[in-house]
Amino acid sequence: MTGWNASDIPDQSGRTAVVTGANSGIGYITARELARKGARVVLACRSEARGTAALDLLRSEVPGARAEFGALDLGDLDSVRKFAGTFSGGERLDLLINNAGVMALPYGRTADGFETQFGVNHLGHFALTGLLLPRILDTPGARVVSVSSGFHALADIDIADLNSERRYRRWIAYGRSKTANLLFIHELARKLAVRGSDVVAAAAHPGYASTNLQTAGARMEGRKTAERVMELGNRIAAQPAEAGALPTLYAATAPGVRPDSFTGPRLMMWRGAPAKSWRARWTLDDAAGERLWAASEQLTGVTY
Fold it and tell me: What InterPro entries does this protein map onto (predicted)?
């Protein structure tokens, strides 16, 4: 992994990738670099205006790119099902990059009544992966990569209160949703191994990357001071989105990536080239993974 960067991405010609939340930040960079290496890329975004603007930008930066926009609102299971339904029988899907996410938002609920962070960050991607899994399983060498965060260390999931109905603390809820991302990959990798599939399920995190994720919650509530502090932190301490996308790109494309691996920046999980990342022990708990999986199937109505 030493010094690994976007130029090391293997040729992706003939491959198809779906990147959620590809309209900005590390999602956009991920989609752009995959397209630069020849992949057909679907930018799966909630906002059509922002998604098509990102598509135009990508095509200007990568002339001849095979890229398209797909409408996907991870906070609405009807939208997830509609998006998944656009993949016809026989169509290959080599890479599913579960990148989209929200962070430290005020309490809210998705269209289906789930707490927003858990609903978007975990349940939406759980449903999407399950609905697309037949295409993934039929594609040799396919991978599923979920983007978690070092903030997963803030909290384990509370299986008895997945929607934070007893008490809502925005950062704890965020940490739980990111733990859920890692537990999902852990359990998916186990199930794929039992099946004897060569599909690789892996996770990554960007470290501290400068994106609009940090300021969204404060902006929604009009907390100007908090928003300015986040903006200052982005300018002073964060690495650029181009660097933040590298762990995801590594997990998605580098040879030899192991199932259930967790890749992040080398330097204190903060910045630098991709490397194996520390993860909390609770993200490797088989029983917790099984419980979360069963609850996720029940909540979404998507069974694998």
Answer: NAD(P)-bd_dom_sf, SDR_fam
